[in-house]
Design a protein that fits this description.
The complex is a heterodimer of chains A (346) and B (281). Chain A has helices spanning 21-36, 53-60, 79-93, 104-117, 226-239, 247-251, 282-285, 317-335; strands at 6-12, 14-15, 18-19, 40-48, 65-70, 97-101, 121-125, 127-130, 137-143, 148-154, 160-164, 181-184, 196-203, 215-219, 242-245, 272-276, 293-298, 311-314. Chain A is of the alpha/beta class and 346 residues long. Chain A has a seven-stranded parallel sheet, sandwiched between helices. A five-stranded parallel sheet of chain A has the order 15-14-16-17-18. Chain B has 281 residues and is of the alpha/beta class. In chain B, 29% of the residues lie in helices and 28% in strands. Chain B has helices at residues 36-52, 67-76, 94-111, 131-139, 195-203, 248-251, 253-267, and strands at residues 2-6, 9-11, 17-18, 25-26, 32-34, 55-61, 80-84, 116-120, 143-154, 159-165, 169-176, 179-183, 207-209, 229-235, 244-247. In chain B, the strands form three sheets. Chain B has a nine-stranded mixed sheet, sandwiched between helices. A two-stranded antiparallel sheet of chain B has the order 2-5. In chain B, helix 2 links the parallel strand 6 (55-61) and strand 7 (80-84). Classes of the chains: A alpha/beta (346), B alpha/beta (281). The interface between A and B is large, with 88 and 81 residues. Strand 18 (311-314) of chain A pairs parallel with strand 15 (244-247) of chain B, so a sheet runs across the interface. The structure holds flavin-adenine dinucleotide and adenosine monophosphate.
Chain lengths: 346, 281
């Protein structure tokens, strides 16, 4: 490959040999960026232990080449060995653009890499594009509590780094046939070089992947308290969905933090988002405005959630939600549907 | 134990408003506060000091006004505070910020070795969560981000057990010291500070360091020059077109809800609600 090829890299996040879907979402976006950037190639970076099979998957999302560091030291994610390994790859192959998922793992990692290789990093982007004149990455992100959007450019240093949260970008369709190559590299660290040891792990009581649910029934302050969520849960169960919440409801302890939607919670992209008793503050909206269909229920006809709703119902959620549950039940009974599987709590 | 905490004074973004005509931020009257995560970083440091003995030093880079934030830290129990302030440092992005904070910390640790560095998980004005990882990388010490609990510290062996939040649960990590933590709010709940701290704050004046003393800088790494990223443009998010509105008052409860389900069915977002003969599984 010629020297001035522009490599666009995506970090493939994996844990226990399973790739995080955000990696494929990023690769999907990279396909589009690559079409705008002459001389660019789509590549990916994969670290772990016994994870080579994930490279196959990456080819199906458009990666032509996967740089792989496979080493027992990388069995579980730790900042130091992952950061060191990837920084070495960056210094060797000099990618033009490098994208990382803005998960807990990805945010921990990206800041370290950017500092080691001394480049610019734009966190939590909601939009990626190639600036048509400068031919560099234009990374747009919300700032000042979501009140303002800023497009960030990194003019001189390389790679241009950005993180994007899960579900901000659509999941691409995998290619039916795809080919690629693996380039293996050494980590160059021994276990004794790593000062941090994983000595225990406490799994979350509740493993809720709200960002990947198809149906979310979300409630805000208007739900009034933990009991109100039972009303929402009943509808979510009928629809095979999960319950979400605005921040005040989480802060009040009505639901665990995993359920929070919005700028400081999860970004979601369900097919159906029902917002009940949520006023629609910008910090909430940035977390759910990518939903396919938004149904909002609010007693206040001027609630700002109505501005982004596909359908707005002016009314009391304690009337509307139980009626929805009842009617959904009867439709299912009529059509002979017993169970709906969805993203309900594991 | 010597603990260094890095804090940032930020506008209280809960109160930030946009001028709808110009699309710019209205900053007037927006109160400046200590970044909420950093309040818990200080609290943790003070509680560890009370438990293991030692000293808490706080650093911040910011405008002269940020001295107010440092006074609050002394009220909370900090012993020494350093304000790093100079026009040359202004308009720094996270890379340049972590450089300057690191240079200052380096002076502090040469005067007095540091066992633990505590940063907030992120600053609410930018939500970048990069300065902590950046400084840890520059110091070449272990980073434990998203820390939720300090289980124990063993000063004799220079090790600590820290709980760290991940997507799947909580990791229990053993680390050598010094290490750098970035913390979530649950790491140490806020409390009413004991009176002696308040009395100390009345007479204490934070130290002010400019770009002159007592450290050295590579001028290409500070301020605008040292910042690889620039803001190309800023704008308010464009509004989405609103859908239709139904009122229970007009259509009745049952009519409103069946209309809503019909619309959802037509949108094809829930299979079993899809209009009959149109792909209902
Ligand atoms: C930096 C920052 C980050 C933030 N991050 C987030 C975030 O991630 N997620 C988030 O959600 N918020 C976030 N917020 C908070 C956000 O600004 C709003 O305060 C919050 O979203 C409001 O929640 P709410 O809509 O539930 O409550 P409110 O604004 O109080 O709205 C309650 C609504 O319920 C309606 N209502 C009341 N009773 C009924 C009823 N019986 N039936 C129907 N409707 C009823 C009312 O008319 C009202 O519209 C953040 C704020 C800041 C500053
Ligand atoms: N200007 C600053 N001075 C000192 N510490 C800072 C500064 N900016 C950020 N920090 C620290 O870094 C953390 C993360 O900030 P950020 O990377 O901006 O989200 C904050 O919670 C502070 O602990």
């Amino acid at each position: 490959m010629s020297e001035n090829v522009k490599r666009i890299w995506t970090f493939i996040e994996q844990e226990d040999g399973i790739a995080h879907p955000v990696s494929w979402e990023l690769l999907g976006a990279v396909q589009k960026l690559s079409a705008e950037l002459e001389g660019s190639v789509v590549e990916a970076v994969l670290l772990g232990h016994n994870v080579a099979s994930i490279a196959e998957e990456a080819y199906h999302y458009g990666a032509k080449r996967v740089y792989l560091i496979d080493d027992p030291v990388l069995e579980h994610y730790r900042n130091h060995p992952y950061g060191t390994g990837i920084s070495k790859l960056v210094e060797k192959y000099k990618p033009e653009i490098f994208l990382v998922g803005a998960t807990i793992l990805g945010r921990d990692l990206a800041g370290t890499i950017a500092t080691q290789v001394k480049t610019g990093l734009t966190a939590d982007c909601t939009e990626l594009a190639i600036d048509p004149d400068k031919k560099i990455l234009a990374a747009t992100r919300p700032t000042f509590g979501g009140n303002l959007m800023a497009t960030i450019l990194c003019q001189k240093q390389r790679p241009q780094m950005a993180t994007v949260r899960p579900r901000v970008l659509p999941m691409p369709e995998p290619l039916p046939v795809a080919e690629g190559e693996i380039v293996r590299e050494e980590l160059g660290l021994k276990e004794s070089d790593v000062a941090v040891k994983l000595v225990g792990f406490i799994p979350s009581k509740e493993q809720l992947l709200i960002e990947y649910a198809d149906v979310i029934v979300a409630g805000g302050r208007g739900v009034g308290g933990p009991d109100g969520y039972k009303v929402l849960q009943a509808l979510a169960d009928e629809l095979g969905g999960v319950v979400g919440a605005s921040r005040p409801a989480i802060d009040a302890g009505w639901l665990p933090r995993e359920h929070q939607v919005g700028q400081t919670g999860k970004t979601v992209r369900p097919k159906l988002y029902i917002a009940a008793g949520i006023s629609g503050a910008v910090q909430h909206r940035v977390g759910m405005n990518g939903s396919d269909f938004i149904l909002a229920i609010n007693t206040d006809p001027n609630a700002s959630i109505f501005q982004i709703a596909d359908l707005a119902i002016v009314g009391d959620l304690f009337q509307v939600i139980p009626e929805l549950t009842a009617q959904v039940k009867s439709i299912k009974a009529k059509r002979g549907i017993k169970e709906v599987n969805g993203g309900s709590d594991v | 134990m010597h603990i260094v905490v890095a804090i940032k004074q930020v506008p209280d973004t809960t109160n930030v408003r946009i001028n709808p005509e110009t699309g710019t931020l209205i900053r007037e009257g927006v109160p400046a506060i200590i970044n909420p995560y950093d309040v818990h970083a200080i609290e943790l440091a003070v509680q560890l000091k009370e438990k293991y003995g030692g000293k808490v030093t706080v650093v911040t880079m910011g405008p002269p006004k940020a001295a107010e934030a440092l006074s609050e830290c002394v009220e909370q129990g900090a012993d020494r505070c350093v304000l790093i302030t100079d026009r040359k440092f202004a308009a720094a992005d996270t890379l340049a910020t972590s450089y300057v904070v690191w240079r200052a910390i380096d002076v502090i640790q040469q005067e007095e070795p540091v066992d633990l560095f505590i940063f907030g998980m992120q600053a609410i004005d930018g939500d970048t969560a990069q300065v902590g990882p950046g400084v840890a990388t520059r110091l070449g010490i272990p980073l434990i981000s998203y820390a939720v609990k300090v289980e124990s510290i063993d000063p004799a062996s220079h090790t600590a057990l820290i709980h760290r939040k991940t997507e799947q649960g909580t990791e229990v990590l053993q680390t050598s010291l010094p290490a750098l933590l970035t913390v979530l709010k649950e790491i140490a709940p806020e409390r009413r500070a004991p009176l002696p701290y308040f009395i100390h704050s009345l007479e204490y004046k934070p130290e002010v360091w400019t770009s002159e003393a007592p450290y050295s800088f590579d001028v290409t790494q500070i301020g605008i020059k040292g910042s690889p990223t620039i803001v190309g443009k800023a704008f308010t998010p464009p509004p989405k077109e609103a859908g239709d509105v139904v009122k229970i008052a007009d259509k009745g409860l049952s009519g409103t809800v069946s209309y809503a389900l019909e619309r959802i069915g037509h949108a094809g977002v829930v299979d079993f609600l899809a209009a009959e003969g149109k792909g209902g599984k």
